[in-house]
Each structure stands twice: as C-alpha cells, then as structure tokens.
UniProtKB/TrEMBL annotation, chain A:
Cell compartment(s), UniProt: Cell membrane
PROSITE patterns found in the cross-reference section: ABC_TM1
Keyword terms of this UniProt record: Cell membrane, Membrane, Transmembrane, Transmembrane helix, Transport
Transmembrane segments: 9-30, 98-121, 133-156, 194-215, 256-282, 302-328
The keyword Amino-acid biosynthesis is assigned to this record: no
Domain of life (superkingdom): Bacteria
Keyword Cell membrane annotated: yes
Protein name: Dipeptide transport system permease protein
Main location: membrane
Family: Belongs to the binding-protein-dependent transport system permease family.
Domain ABC transmembrane type-1: 96-325
Membrane topology (UniProt): Multi-pass membrane protein
From TrEMBL, chain B:
Signal as UniProt keyword: yes
Keywords: Signal
Protein name per UniProt: Dipeptide transport system substrate-binding protein
InterPro entries associated with the record: Peptide/Ni-bd, SBP_5, SBP_5_CS, SBP_5_dom
Positions of the Solute-binding protein family domain: 67-440
Stored SUPFAM superfamilies: Periplasmic binding protein-like II
Listed Gene3D superfamilies: Dipeptide-binding Protein, Domain 1, Dipeptide-binding Protein, Domain 3, Periplasmic binding protein-like II
Organism: Kaistia geumhonensis
Localization in the cell: Periplasm
Signal peptide residue numbers: 1-23
C-alpha cells in the first residue's frame, strides 16, 4: 500500500511541471498583452510599453521566463498579480475557502440525493420511479448552468421571495473572516441570524453546482447497482432469507459503490470547473470569479498560479480516490 | 416592582437610542472588483467608482453634469498668459481616521504636492510603489504640460504650465488628480508598507473606507466631519458581476442602485413600480473609421458613398435596441460647442451609386470591416453592426470581409493602420470637447496613434491646437463648431451613435443623479 502511494506521489512532480509549462505557453499564445489590456481605449506609447514589459520581465525569452518561473515556484512563490500587485498565493488562499465550501456542499447534496435515487431506481427497474429518476437525471445532466442558475434565481428569489439572489451572506452582517468558511465564521461571529443568512445564501448555488454531479452519481449508482443485484452472492443473500432492505443496502450497495467513489472523486475535480460559472452568476467570491477576471485582464501570474493550484488539488483528489479505491478493492493495489 | 419598572424604562431607552442611531445603508450593486483604491494608478471605471466615495480633487464635476466646480480648492485664478494657475485651498478639511492611522493635521498644500509629485517626479519615494504606472496622468499629457508645482503657503498652490492649456481644469477634476494624505503616506513609508495607501484608502471624501472583501463587498461609512456636509447614509458596494442577477437584487430590494442593466431586461425594468429607470445620453461616440491613407478610402467620394449606403436607423434599432441616439457629430450633444446646425447625410443608395461611379468604382471592390471583440457602452455589438454594414455595402457591389482580433491586439493593429474600415469608439473623460476632437488630430494620426482614420487635415488641426490654448469658452466654442463642419465635409469617420445610459434606481432613493461621465456618486443621496 505504501509503495503504491509513493509511486503515485512521485508522479506528481513531472505532472506539475508539465501543467506549469502548458499554462505558461498557452497563456502567451493567446493574443493580447496584459499592459495593452489595462489601458482601455487609450492605448499606450511604445516606450512605456517597453518599460512595463521590462519591469514585469516580459521582455525576456519565453524559455528564460519559464525557468525563472520554475525557480520561483520551487521557493513557494507564485508571483504577484499584475493588476492588484498582491501575492497570487495570498489571493488564492483568501478566495479558495469560498469555492471549497460551495464545492463541498454541492458534492454533499449530490451524494446524499444521488445515491439513494440511484438505488431506488435500480430496485424498481423499469417502473415509474426508475423512469422518473432517470428522466430527471438526464435533464439535470444536460442543463446549461447559466440558464439553470438564473431560472432558480427568478423563481425562488424574485417570484417566491424565499432565497437571496446572490452573495454569501446578507451584507448587513459584517465580521472578519476567521476560517474563510462562511458557515463556520457566521457561527463564530455571535451575530443573531448570521448563520441562517449564510445557509440561505448557499441553497441555490449548491443546487446549481450540484445538479450535474447529482445526475451523474444517480445514473452511475443505478447501473452498478443493477449489475451487482444480478450477482450470485446477492441471490445467495436473498435465498438466505435476508430482508430485501438488508440485501440491497448492506450487501449490494457496498460493492456497487466502488465505481461510484471514483465518479465522486472525478466529479469533485470537475466541480472546480463548474464553479466558475456558478460563482459568476451568484457573485460567489471564489477562485472561479477570480480566474475569469484574470483572463480578461491577461493577468499572467494569477492565471498561472491559479491553474497550478487547482490542478494540484485535482491531482490530490485523484490520489485520494486511488488510495480509497485500493482500500475498497485490494485487487487494484497489486495490479500494475 | 419598582426595579422592574426602572429596568423596563432603561431598556426602552436603550432600544430607542439604538433605533435612533441605526444608520441607513444604501447598497449599490456594482459590476466588478476594483484593482485597488487609488485612482492615480488604475484605469477602469469600476476602480474609480470604488475610490470616489473616499476622495476629493482640487476641482470637481458637479454631480449629474460636466461642469467644473470648486472641490478642495475654494477658488483659483489663471494668469493673463494662461500659464499659471493658482489654487486657494479650503481650510479646516479633515482626513479620515482608520485603524492604524489617525491624522494629526488638516488637509493643506503638502497633500497636493505629495499627490502630484508621486505621479510626476521619479524621485518621489512613492513613484515606484504599486507598479508605478500613472496611465491617466501620462495620457492627459501632464508630464509635458507641467513646468512646476509650488507651495506658495500652506493653503495656496501654484501650477506653472509650459503652455496655456484650456482643458487643464477639467483634467484636474478627473479621478487621477485625487488628493491623498501626505501624512498617511509618510507613516506607511516609515512602517515599510507603502503599498498600504493604495489598498486601504484615506481621503477627505464624504465616506470613509471600512473594509473590502474581494469579489464580495466594499463597505464605507458616512464621514461625520466631511467638509461638504456629512452624508445621510452609509454605503455598501455589493459586487455582483452578472447583470441579470443585479437586476434581480434591485427587484428584491437587496440593493437600491445598479449600473449597466442587461438591454434585454430594460422592458421589464421600465414596468416595475418600485423602480425608476433613470436615463441620460452617454458621453460617448461609436464610429466606423475609414483609413484615409489606403485606397480607395483616400478618395472622399468613396467615403461619402459608403456613408450614404449605410442605414443608420437600422443599426440603432437592431443593435442599440432604442438605447442609442444617432450621431451626426463626433461629440455627443451633452457637450458644449455641439454644432446642431450640421445636417446628417441621408440614407440614399442611388446617391451612393452615383458617387462610386464618379470615383470610377461602379463595379465595386472588396474590403475589410473590422469589428471590436468586446462590448462597450458606445457599441453593444460591433459584430452585428459590421454585418448590417456588410449587407448594405453589397448593394454597391462592395464585398466586405469581417475581421476581428483579441481586444488589445485589435486596438494595436488598428492604431498601426492595418485596417481599411474599422469600428471603435470613445467615452469622454472630462466633458471637454478637446477630449474627443484630439482623436481626429494630426498628432494622433501617426503610426500607433489613436486617430484610426489616420486623417490629418491642416485646417482642422490648426483650430484644434489653437482652441486648446484659449481659456475663453465662447471663442473655443466657435472653433469647435467650425471643426465639426470640416469633419462633416471630409468624412474621415462614419459617426454611428451615442448610447443612452440606463440606471435602475429604487424609488426610495432620493437625490441620485445619473452622471454623463459614467460616474456613480452617493454623497448627496438619501433613503426614504
């Protein structure tokens, strides 16, 4: 097991360098110059453009810039944002908890609803319930996030007046962030109603971001469940006279969940991507919004640093999934 | 019994006091995060809006207009030759206190000197701080214009100019000319954190800065000692990037004012009983420039033919969705010196064909139309405009290809003159006609310059240069009116439209004015 983990971790370093390289080159292939972009209609004189490029080190050959960048990352420095002059790592760390909080809630939402829905659909195969679950899942799967988000806002916030439109908490509450997680900070703040406000702000974005993973997990659970339900050991369990509930939820589910775990892991990675749009619609102050803005501003250090951090996270999740998978299914560990 | 009565009375008193002290808070749904809180070093309207509650300039724009009125300078005089401008500063103006800084003195000439020297003098200890780019200061030509800035006494500052410059006062009312606290700057420099003054602003403005959470909110509170009278509200910017979400928040009363509504929502906004849809013609122009250095656009007849062939009304209806006003001059009608006597060229395809025939191009030709890859207030959909023009030109057998690049690249190539016909526009900075007309001047027609028609007309340019040196408004007006006639006759550009700026404001808001300069200001605003 240990060897397995070490092997996986060692792979991370070249992966990181590759990602850093790809981002680095890709950004520079996109036309547009961070300095040109910031000057709006006015433009800039060639002399001052050259001066700024020199200050930012953009006048060096790309390979040299890249090597400097690698050295810099190796020292734990992700650089400084061109537009705000703040360290990229610091900005990432202030904004990331918001994204993580939303992603965790969305995942929780997807798992808590998705697995039972999948099980239910599988045990009632071909029935009305099965068709309804799969129909809803298919719809959810193909829902454009942008449209879905606005639809929910218009219905639940504007028409029914049940939920707030956007943001993380009512702005009348104000306290310094401690952990960066609004659910925790609002409890720590001791302000009446702050926690409830935070929860109500989380509802819609959680649903929007959780919809696709929910659909995916429900479908996956259903199909693996169906497979497992046909296995001999399940028939044996049934023959032994165990209650159908026990057969399904203890014997079958444990095995059916193994592939679902992978899906959950992969989807968590995907969530980081989906978060970009969701955050934009709901003015959720996370890394999604931050990255969109840095693209518009051609803020190279922010884009490079941000992408690197997110890919690092996805890699980490993948390793965890692999390890977990190995725990659930020992055959994987020894396969090479 | 007695005790409990007293307790009750006491608690009622407390509740009453609390209710009385409870400040009204106006929430403004802003469209994005500011880069920082110092208008000297940023360039976007979003960032200017975020700093404006905190700061003042020597002279300012009267809210809702482009008139220049006294700010931190109570009065000023211009020397007869127009090269010396002396400002008399307001006395007793307080700076804000924040955590970690309490001012020990009032605003004075040192603050003016510090603020300008930071941008101007390489030896200012602050010159290189936070990137050291002073785009507006440089773009407005201040380094060339300024000869010296002198402190005559604590409340008198003299600006000496290298030449008379009429738009100078309007320039000083712009955000880049913001006055910062020299004392705060000194303290931060000593503490080794000079960047702090750009992130945690201290100014003399109507609101003091409380906190900023990136992509979330900016908080300000009313400054009780404000020289212009304490505001009646506290202020919060709720950063909401999506226009439809902003509108939903206004509908629900989660915020009271929002900028930049989605054109598709305008209909619904107009019908909402709780909301006023305020509007004003924007200080802008969207245009199509002909590159007059390239064939066949060096021929005036060809340019005229194209202008006659384009259905401007269709563009306004289809692209601006009614939120625009057809432009016949290069400046919008809200600016002084607008020449209303000019009659726009009519849509007349036959006339266009005749003109092309005269120019020997009756069989047509092929050319490019460049369209901007970004949405701008003055042009909500450049691609659609290009398509309409493309279709119109087909009637003249002119085959036009649509071309576009990434925004920075687009502007760069266009300034280099690589295009044949291209769309661009301008939003005015200070309400001075020069701020628009310089875009058609000879200096800007060089390679890389901002005159993308690359049109250089001596007559026009002489008047432009002359008008800039005269402080007499009537005389300047005459020159600008004549220049509009020349531009109309020579048609270097096809003026498309001035967009109309819309701002949904909830009915409980009192005293809010839409700014022709695109500002969002709250000093005089109250809530019912």
């Amino acid at each position: 097991m240990l060897g397995f983990i070490v092997r996986r971790v060692l792979l991370v370093i070249p992966t990181f360098i590759a990602i850093a390289f790809l981002t680095f080159v890709a950004i520079r292939l996109v036309p547009g110059d961070p300095i040109e972009v910031r000057t709006g209609e006015r433009g800039i004189t060639p002399e001052r453009l050259a001066e700024f490029r020199h200050q930012l080190g953009l006048d060096q050959p790309v390979w040299k810039q890249f090597l400097d960048y690698l050295v810099q990352i190796a020292h734990g420095d992700l650089g400084t944002s061109i537009s705000t002059h703040a360290p990229v790592l610091q900005e990432f760390l202030t904004l990331f908890p918001a994204t993580l909080e939303l992603a965790l809630c969305a995942m929780l939402f997807a798992v808590v609803l998705g697995i039972p829905a999948g099980v239910l659909a599988a045990t009632r195969r071909g029935g009305f319930l099965d068709y309804s679950v799969m129909g809803v899942a298919l719809t959810g799967f193909s829902m454009p996030i942008f449209w879905w988000g606005l639809l929910l806002i218009l219905f639940f916030s504007v028409t029914l007046d049940l939920t707030p439109v956007s943001g993380r908490i009512d702005l009348l509450y104000y306290f310094e962030p401690v952990t960066g997680f609004m659910l925790i900070d609002s409890l720590l703040s001791d302000q009446d109603g702050a926690f409830l406000s935070a929860v109500s702000h989380l509802i819609l974005p959680t649903i929007v971001l959780g919809t696709i993973p929910l659909a995916t997990i429900a479908r996956m659970t259903r199909s693996t469940m169906l497979e497992v339900l046909g296995e001999d050991y399940v028939r044996t369990a049934r023959a032994k006279g165990l209650s159908p509930f026990r057969v399904v939820n203890v014997h079958a589910l444990r095995n059916a969940l193994i592939p679902v775990v992978t899906v959950i892991g992969l989807q968590t990675g995907m969530l980081m991507g989906g978060a970009v749009l969701t955050e934009y619609i709901f003015s959720w102050p996370g890394i999604g919004t931050w990255l969109i803005e840095s693209i518009q501003r051609r803020d190279y250090p922010v884009l490079q640093g941000g992408v690197l951090m997110i890919s690092g996270l996805v890699i980490l999740i993948n390793i965890l999934v692999d390890v977990l998978y190995g725990v659930l299914n020992p055959r994987i560990r020894h396969a090479r | 019994m007695k005790i409990s009565t007293r307790l009750l009375a006491a608690s009622m008193l407390v509740v009453g006091l609390a209710a009385g002290a409870e400040a009204k808070t106006l929430v403004y749904c802003s469209e994005g995060s500011p880069e920082n809180f110092n208008p000297q070093i940023n360039t976007t309207g979003t960032s200017f809006d975020a700093a404006r509650p905190v700061f003042n300039q020597l002279v300012e724009f009267e809210p809702g207009t482009t008139n220049v009125v006294p700010g931190l300078a109570e009065s000023w005089e211009v020397s007869p030759d127009g090269t010396e401008v002396t400002f008399h500063l307001r006395k007793g103006v307080k700076f804000h206190s924040i955590k970690g800084f309490t001012p020990t003195r009032d605003f004075n000439a040192d603050d003016v000197l510090f603020s300008f020297n930071r941008m101007w003098k390489e030896d200012s200890p602050y010159h290189k701080v936070s990137g050291g780019a002073y785009d507006y200061f440089n773009d407005m030509g201040m380094p060339d214009l300024l000869k010296s800035i002198d402190k005559v006494d604590d409340y008198t500052v003299k600006f000496t100019l290298t030449r008379p410059e009429a738009p100078f006062l309007a320039n000083l009312a712009m955000d880049f000319a913001t006055i910062l606290s020299a004392e705060y700057a000194d303290q931060m420099l000593k503490a080794g954190t000079p960047e702090q003054i750009d992130q945690v602003p201290v100014g003399t403005g109507p609101f003091s800065f409380v906190a900023y959470q990136k992509d979330n909110a900016i908080r300000y509170k009313a400054f009780p000692d404000y020289w212009g009278g304490a505001p009646k509200i506290d202020l919060v910017f709720s950063i909401t990037k999506d226009a439809t979400a902003r509108w939903a928040k206004v509908q629900k009363g989660e915020c009271q004012v929002m900028p930049y509504p989605n054109p598709a929502d305008l209909d619904a906004i107009g019908k909402d009983e709780n909301v006023d849809l305020m509007q004003q013609p924007g200080l802008n122009i969207g245009y199509l420039a002909f590159n007059v250095t390239k064939k066949p656009f060096d021929d005036k007849r060809v340019r005229l033919a194209i202008i006659h062939a384009i259905d401007k009304e269709a563009i306004l209806k289809d692209v601006y969705l009614g939120a625009g006003q057809p432009a016949k001059n290069f400046i919008p009608p809200t600016i002084w010196s607008y020449n209303d006597a000019i009659v726009d060229y009519p849509y007349d395809v036959e006339k266009a064909k005749d003109l092309l025939k005269e120019a020997g191009l009756q069989d047509g030709f092929s050319t490019d139309i460049w369209w901007m890859p970004v949405q701008r207030p003055y042009n909500p959909n450049a691609k659609r405009v290009a398509e309409i023009i493309q279709a119109d030109l087909e009637k003249l057998n002119i085959k036009a290809n649509l071309v576009s690049y990434e925004w920075g690249e687009y502007r760069k190539r266009m300034q280099q003159g690589e295009h044949q016909m291209g769309q661009l526009g301008w939003t005015g900075d200070n309400g001075d006609p020069d701020n628009f007309f310089f875009l058609l001047g000879c200096d800007a027609a060089r390679d890389g310059g901002q005159n993308i028609a690359k049109w250089c007309n001596k007559d026009f340019d002489d008047k432009l240069k002359k008008a800039k040196t005269i402080f007499d408004k009537a005389e300047r007006t005459k020159l600008y009116e004549e220049m509009q006639v020349i531009a109309h006759d020579e048609v270097p550009v096809f003026n498309i439209a001035h967009s109309v700026v819309f701002e949904p404001v909830r009915k409980e808001v009192v005293g809010y004015k839409v700014s022709p300069l695109g500002r969002h200001e709250f000093a005089k605003v109250d809530l019912k």
